[in-house]
Amino acid sequence: MTQDPYEILGVSRDASADEIKKAYRRLARQLHPDVNPDPETQERFKDVSRAYEVLSDPGKRQAYDRGGDAFSQGFGGAGQGFSFTDIMDAFFGGGAPGGGQSRGPRSRARRGQDALIRLDVTLAEAAFGVTRDLKVDTALTCETCDGEGTAPGTKPVACETCHGQGEVAVVQRSFLGEIRTLRPCAACRGFGSVIPDPCRECSGDGRVRSRRTLTVKIPAGVDHGTRVQLTGQGEVGPGGGPAGDLYVEIHVEPHKTFTRHGNDLHTTISLPMTAAALGTHLTLPLLEADLTSTAETPDEEKPVTTYDLDVRPGTQSGSEQVIRGFGVPSLRGGRGDLVVSIKVDTPTRLDPRQEELLRELAAIRGEESPDGQNEAPTRGMFGRLRDAFQG
């Protein structure tokens, strides 16, 4: 097998560093032992790796171009080792030009975590909006060190183990020779510096826990489980890093008379059988009647709190009346409906005079001895569609 690194990689002698790297990555993907375990292929992979080690180093390449032996000991053969980062780059890309470059120390400042807090509201507050003051216990920037984590008048110093690089090289022997990998420095945890005199207030973290008060405006139309995002109001990050977000999760308390289905409100009213039979007029309280001084109303005018409902004569128990536009405001505009279900109460206790009048009415209507009639069950929409298709 030829020992010319240019021929091994399949590039010309005037190839650029980028062309050499692309050629190496292409061959490494084809010849890596994890892809081709054949012994002959493994030997070729070793040759490709050694050739790339020579041509990717400007000094070694220049020495070879002047007539040096590319694979002699001391020139840069397998005994000298090569960076495992180059092999990883061949499969996953990345790295600085030339390969094998250190990622450098990582910053102490990191983004803080998001926080979640639960807020209990009434159905009226969820429907029409509300402004609340919340007490939040989160991490804040330490005012003593301004997030630096160092005692006043001091600064971090370079790590003596990694010399400020944040990484240390670990050399291991394998069938490829000596493989050098970079790992975060354990002495400085990859920061490249250490804090010899940490701030006593935050113990070097750059933040402290404290309670603060936030004014939160809940928009009209939120529902149970809705989360309102407050950007930058969460936990402050270590080292004075930016704060995360605060999420306010809405929990709507049950209402004594209204239930919510989407943007519609449902309520039930009870009527005596005489009112259902003859028809009546009644004043129905609306959800707006529950609004408090802290709630956000749709407009600045005093909201309408009642609705004049006309019950038609002959209204049956279980029937519904829909009042358009008196439900819950939508987050996207518009408003749902109020659905009123009618429940007809049948008296269970009658005095003699009431019983006499009812018997007289039954006689007039010919209902003294009614014979029960079986009724067909009510079919839903899909049942009616099935019957239509079946003729």
* Percentage beta strand: 25-35%
Q: How widely separated are the two ends?
A: 84 Å
Specify the overall morphology.
Answer: elongated
Could you give the order of the helices and strands?
HHHHEHEHEEEEEEEEEEHEEEEHH
Helix content: 10-25%
Structural class: alpha+beta
What about the largest sheet?
Answer: 4 strands, mixed
- Name the poorly predicted regions: 73-86, 88-102
Strand order of the largest sheet: 11-12-16-15
**Mean pLDDT over the residues:** 82
What gyration radius follows from the Cα positions, in whole Å? 40 Å
E-strand count: 16
Summarize the structure.
The protein is α+β, with helices and mostly antiparallel strands.
Task: Furnish the topology, listing elements before pairings.
Blueprint: H1 5-9, H2 17-31, H3 39-55, H4 58-65, E1 82-83, H5 84-92, E2 115-121, H6 123-128, E3 130-141, E4 157-158, E5 167-174, E6 177-184, E7 193-194, E8 207-218, E9 227-230, E10 246-252, E11 259-261, E12 264-272, H7 273-278, E13 280-285, E14 306-311, E15 320-323, E16 338-345, H8 352-365, H9 381-389
Parallel strand pairs: 1-6, 2-10, 12-16
Antiparallel strand pairs: 3-8, 4-7, 5-6, 9-10, 11-12, 13-14, 15-16
Subcellular location: Cytoplasm
Main location: cytoplasm
Zinc finger (CR-type): 129-211
Describe it.
A zinc finger (CR-type) spans 129-211. InterPro entries: DnaJ, DnaJ_C, DnaJ_domain, DnaJ_domain_CS, HSP40/DnaJ_pept-bd, HSP_DnaJ_Cys-rich_dom, HSP_DnaJ_Cys-rich_dom_sf, J_dom_sf. The chain has 391 residues and is of the alpha+beta class. Helix content is 23%, strand content 26%. The chain has nine helices and 16 strands. The protein has helices at residues 5-9, 17-31, 39-55, 58-65, 84-92, 123-128, 273-278, 352-365, 381-389, and strands spanning 82-83, 115-121, 130-141, 157-158, 167-174, 177-184, 193-194, 207-218, 227-230, 246-252, 259-261, 264-272, 280-285, 306-311, 320-323, 338-345. A four-stranded mixed beta sheet has the order 11-12-16-15. Mean pLDDT is 82; it is low at 73-86 and 88-102.
